[in-house]
TrEMBL record:
InterPro entries from the UniProt entry: LexA-like, LexA/Signal_pep-like_sf, Peptidase_S24_S26A/B/C
Organism: Ciceribacter naphthalenivorans
Protein name: DNA-binding protein
UniProt keyword terms in alphabetical order: DNA-binding, Transcription, Transcription regulation
Gene that encodes it: c1
CDD domains: S24_LexA-like (cd06529)
Location of the Peptidase S24/S26A/S26B/S26C domain: 95-216
Region (Disordered): 24-50
């Protein structure tokens, strides 16, 4: 059941996911920076206020967050509902895709969650696979050696907060998919360190990044 506390908590989680304060999230969405302040969440009579549907719509658009993903933030652990062709994850199995295929269109939604057809399924009972929206990517080629080798399976958690030093998978708007180490991220740019010293480090404008997801496990 929806409540004031759950909706406001979801907004706070969304801000944290994008390494923003609630004020920063409001600013990114073009809202008054005080829109999500604690003082705006209650009225003069002490009763809780609802955030407007317009403000929620704007922050979802500004962060590339789907309504199903926002519902997951309202009810953490309930599982990614999936809609409009999203991959339906079954208990004990996770979607699997090769890195080469991941660069093509139609396999992910705007938030980097599995969508559409063409995914394989791999059984994976270990606890990391029980997180909502987790999927697997199969390493192809030697560009990620010595850390990851051809055929290794990486478990990826889209939407998770990423920090400096995390191993991440990044997809650019041009369709390039890569596994790197996050060196630095700001609202405007991202810097990545290559896992293979023979390959250059990379940097992108955030406008050129479709999504970034944290690697939580590898089959090594």
């Amino acid at each position: 059941m929806l409540s004031h506390d759950k909706i406001w908590a979801a907004i706070d989680r969304l801000a944290e996911r994008h390494q923003l304060t609630p004020s920063g999230l409001a600013r990114r969405a073009g809202l008054d920076p005080t829109s999500f302040n604690k003082s705006k969440r209650t009225g003069p009579d002490g009763r809780m206020r609802w955030p407007s549907t317009e403000s929620i719509s704007k922050v979802l658009e500004a962060t590339g967050t789907g309504i199903d993903q926002f519902m997951d933030l309202i009810e953490p652990g309930a599982g990614y509902a999936g809609s409009n062709g999203a991959f339906q994850q079954q208990s004990g199995s996770i979607p699997l895709l090769g890195f080469a295929q991941a660069g093509a269109g139609g396999f992910f939604d705007d938030g980097g969650f599995p969508a559409g057809q063409g995914w394989d399924v791999v059984e994976f009972p270990a606890s990391p696979a029980q997180k909502s929206g987790v999927y697997a990517l199969e390493v192809q080629g030697d560009s990620m050696k010595p850390l990851y080798r051809d055929g290794d399976i990486l478990l990826v958690e889209p939407g998770a907060q990423v920090r400096r030093g995390d191993r991440v998978v990044v997809k650019t708007r041009e369709g390039e998919v890569m596994a790197k180490v996050l060196a630095r991220q700001s609202a405007k740019s991202i810097e990545l360190i290559s896992l293979n010293p023979e390959h250059p480090n990379r940097s992108f404008d955030m406008a050129d990044v479709e999504w970034i997801a944290r690697i939580i496990w590898a089959s090594q």
